[in-house]
Design goal:
By secondary structure, this protein is an alpha+beta fold. The chain is about 40% helix and about 15% strand. It contains two helices and three strands. Strands 1-3-2 form a three-stranded antiparallel beta sheet. The radius of gyration is 12 Å and the shape is globular. The two termini are about 15 Å apart. The relative contact order is 0.25.
């Protein structure tokens, strides 16, 4: 598994919301992204922590 990013880190680094409290926005976005990527989605949930991505298979 790759590096794990917390929801707060993703909000700050991707969307520019430092210290933002409502991290559900990340969950909704990841859900929508997974739906678009289907079975090929490299995003993995690290329960209680955040998200990571795995390298695509060659």
């Amino acid at each position: 598994m790759g590096q794990v990013f917390t929801r707060e880190q993703l909000l700050a680094q991707v969307w520019g919301y430092p210290g933002y409290r409502d991290t559900r926005m990340v969950d909704v976005f990841v859900s929508q992204l997974r739906a678009k990527l289907g079975d090929a989605s490299p995003i993995r949930t690290v329960r209680g922590v955040g998200y990571s991505a795995i390298a695509p298979r060659a």
